[in-house]
Amino acid sequence: MNTPVNRLTIALSVMAVINLFMLMVLNIPFDWYLLPVSVSGVMSVYQLLYLLHITKQNGLRLPMVFYFYCTIWFGCYFAPLLHFALNFWLIFNASLMLPQHWEPYVFIIGILNAVGLVIFILAYRYFYSTSKPGKKVYLLLSSTKLNYVYLLCLISFLFQMFIYSRLGGISGFISTYEARGEDQGFAGFGILFIISEFFPIALIFLFYVNAMRNAALQKGSAIAIFLVILFAACIFFGGLRGSRSNTVLTILHACMIMHYFIRKFKVREMVIGTMLLVGFMYVYKFYKQGGSEAVSAYTQGTLDESEEKYNFDIFEMLLTDFARGDIQPYLVYRYENSNYQPKMGATYPGGFVHFFPSFIIDKESVTTKKTAATELMYNYNGEVMGFYTTRIFGLLGEYILNFGYYTAFLVFLPLAFFMAKLDKWVYSLTPGDVRNFIVPLWILFVIFLFNADLDNAIFFFMKRMLMVIVMLWMVSAKFIMRPAANKEIDHES
């Protein structure tokens, strides 16, 4: 029976087994940091079990907060243990003076995360219970409104062709990417990329709408053919500028749309799809690090894969992309060993600066995350040093840059408000509401959010969500719903 005691017992047992394995087999240090880190692990597993139980009991899809707890479990519990097990500490920053012992600083971050998670759980339940569900429903009543989507596809295509023409065709585009360290590369193309790379997302929407009405498109073969076409579109529309996430996130969006609303994938299909994505990421690293010549050499079997820049470690990818288990403790270490002055929130407005042309705002005079972080990490002004750090610190890390680490757990409070409002809105969507299309994007956003800085979160929203919101608004008819037919989670049960 799924009771609170059973859930707690399972959570404690899982953490105990993992901790013992890490201590006895992988020889991680036995120290006080294990206590707060394990508390975060137990709390997140408990919440995951609770949400799995209550959604299954009520026939509901998993809420957004479920994916947030998955991120918390990995980032706040498992990742710190992996860092110790692999001795993986800021390996990309050889010029930094690292602490001899990481345990005290991981302990402090662990305390902040554990306290913050308690605040999050309590605040989320309060905000969820006091939030009102959405009152509108967006319906696609006329196929003629899909012409707006075709128009957006055309505009996106024309923008992409304009970019290629400006850079000398596809070969010139690739050359620009390969020479990115020697000149400005794609500087000034940001807004153009947002529009030009929208094409694959619009393509997913068109398939989604048609598959909901046409049983032939719901077959596995039709979905497989579409995913191949989509992959080609992803490469053509943005895949050649060195961002593998641009392709991976779009494919994941499509797969979630298929799985949730069109046809559930079998476990075997999920495994095959995961292997294909990992294979793509493996091959793409050659293009990312060595350009088209490296890919050509790899396909011909003449590439020296032993070169350090071509190394592909799945744990390295997980620890650098899905956690901040070394950089956040390092910020605490630098606070204790520098004269850094907190920026008192100045980096947050700086997060919006990237989206304004330089003739509107003097970007050099604005305090941003990278200027503050460079000052803290290197104890120098970036302008004097001639470079700025490009590290990502996560929401907790950016709070530390602004206000110090003593109250950094407070960052969980606005997160709880956001997650509660988002879940209440998602559960208010009816099955026919076209805004269901954006739900997988919100899932990806939630997974991405905790480990992102504000400017990264804004860019993700602008790049992947804003135009989708505009598209859904254009194609749908809006109606006011009568109160309450939808089922949702009752957190009091």
TrEMBL record:
It comes from the Bacteria. The chain crosses the membrane at residues 7-26, 32-52, 64-92, 104-127, 148-167, 187-209, 221-240, 269-287, 403-422, 434-452, 458-477. The keyword Lyase does not apply. The keyword Protease does not apply. Keywords: Membrane, Transmembrane, Transmembrane helix. This is O-antigen polysaccharide polymerase Wzy. It comes from Mucilaginibacter limnophilus.
